[in-house]
Structures are given as structure tokens and as C-alpha cells.
Amino acid sequence: MSIKVMIPASSMIDIKNTTLLLDSPQSCSRCDQLPADFFESHRLKFRAGYQKTHIFGKKYKVENNYTLKIRVCETCYQADYLTNPEMLDRDATTQGRIAKFHSIAWTLGGLLAAAGFLLLTPIIPDTPALKPFKDLWQAPVAVGVLVLFLTWLSQRKQQSLILHALDSAGKDIRSYSRAEVRTPILADENDLSAVALEIKFDNEVWAMETAAIHHWLTEKITSSDQTVSFMQN
Ligand SMILES: [Zn+2]
Q1: What is the pTM of this model?
Q2: How far is ligand 1, taken at its centre, from the CA of residue 201, in Å?
């Protein structure tokens, strides 16, 4: 059984530094372990009030990016590096710094390869001044592909190290998955009671406690589509 926590738009207005932080209780939101000084991240959008505009205009009257952070232990945080390494690249942690380095390398390799193929196209005119560069299009492609390959190898190596460490410690990462999130689009941006974020937790006790602290509604879920009861905290 899981618990779905429903967060109203009024709580989105209180978000400080564009981060919605779920840091209480102090234990891991997945496995209850202590200490739990890490956070799983979800990059989300708060959208409300659909409006018709021209192609470059805003589609919604209110559209804000924010990050949801939920308290986890080091083991569960490391497990995230195996499944969602791109979610760690803004964290001031060892895995976060490695994820950031890999993220930059992926971008750099992709840009180099794209620049090489761009030299092949008529977008770069075949003038005498540019011809020497166009003739060398293979060089940036080769370097770009090499950077991408080395980055992939490095990421695989890092993931293999973490997997080995978790295995040695007898931790099964499949037991504790990330929270599932859904961000409904609000029809009326002034309706602060409308649910703007739903978070599904497998850890019922942790979910109920965090909902009680913030006075958020919860639902018990017995299967993926069956709701058995409503609760008001
Ligand atoms: Zn944990």
C-alpha cells in the first residue's frame, strides 16, 4: 500500500528559493534509516491559468520552475545515481560533483559532434576563407564522439562502483524506489485550494507524518488505480 500526499497551490506560493523542501521527519523517506542527510530531487513546473497566445508567448498565466527535495539516507541517495544520475548534478555532494562533470562532458561532446556535422551543411558557406574549416569537419566529430564515449565509460564505471558498494553492504536498491510525482495544471491561478502537486510514497508512516506537519491531504492507495480512503491532517 502507498500514500499519496496532495499539495495545494497555496503551499507553492510559500516556496522559498524555488525549492519545496520535505525534510521532516528526520529519517529516510524511503527506508526509515538514520541519519538521512541527503535529498532526492525532482525538477518540476507549477502551471496555472491556460491562455491562448502567439507562438512565442506564454502558454500559462503562471508558470514557475521549482525543485522538490525529499529527505533520504546516503544509501538511497546513491541508488539515485544508478537510476537518475542527471537529477544529482546540482547537489554539493561527491556524486553530485561527478554527475555535474558528466553532464558538462555530455553537452561538450554533443556540441563538438554537432559543430562538425554543421560544417558539412550549406549553412556554413563554401567560401575560400571557410573551406579549410569545412574540409576538417571530421575532426570535431571524432573528438566529440570520443568525449561522449569516454563520458559513457566513466559514468558506467562510477555506477558499477556504487552498485558493488551497495551489494557488499547487503542493500537491495530495488526495495526503495523514488517517490512518484504528478503536477496537475490548474485551471484557475487564483484557486489556491486546488491540488498542484501529488507525491506518491511507499513509506506510509513517513508520508503521513510529513503531510500532518504541513496540513496536507492524503489518500491511501492499495493499487495503482484504487483509492480506498481520504484523510485530512
Ligand atoms: Zn534510505
Answers
A1: 0.82
A2: 13
